[in-house]
Amino acid sequence: MKKIRLMTLAAGAALTLALPAAAGAQAPRTATVNLAAVNNSGVTGTATMTDMGGNRTQVVVRLTGAQVNAAGPAHIHDGTCANPNPAPKYPLNNVQNGTSTSEVGASIAELMASPMLVNIHRTPPPAPTDTSGYMTCGNIVAGATAVPSTGGPAGAALPLLGGAGATMAAVAAFVLRRRR
């Protein structure tokens, strides 16, 4: 019986001590930006952003529409689609055959901290800062919730682990006191 009590106490302590490690081990986070057709392009799509850690975010653009092969340069800009800063903040790889995969030097949290947008230009664009060359645009919504790759909220199991550890430790302490 004493062996069971000690094992219960040890298991409770181990679960409680494991919480900080579990809290620090979060899955990469993702967010999807819906890209709408602009300037009568008929091109729509998505830009999926995945936080890679180390202030790096992967951006995967997927486009559909009749003029998708005319899509070329892609960028992340400050501002919104309604009021963009014409100077690109983060260049993305050109769209080819409707897709583009890039990495930018910012975390997903940084990209979502203030209004930014993803846009795709016609190829060749009239000029790098000419917004009439945009084919599609989507706002990166500031403060939007990014979700872990598991699809659930980050750290959802932490309260359960903490509660289980604390309960096991309390039961073991109660049993040990009662036996004395």
Number of domains: 2
Estimated share of beta-strand residues = 35-45%
| Span of the ends, CA to CA | 13 Å
Alpha-beta classification = alpha+beta
Task: Write up what this structure looks like.
The chain has three helices and nine strands; from the N terminus they run αββββββαβββα. With 180 residues, it is of the alpha+beta class. It has two domains: 2-26 and 155-179; 29-148, Immunoglobulin-like (Sandwich). Strands 1, 2, 3, 4, 5, 6, 7, 8 and 9 form a nine-stranded antiparallel beta sheet that branches. A hairpin with a 6-residue loop joins strand 1 (29-37) and strand 2. Mean pLDDT is 75; it is low at 5-28 and 145-164.
Explain briefly what this protein structure is.
This protein is α+β, with helices and mostly antiparallel strands and 180 residues long.
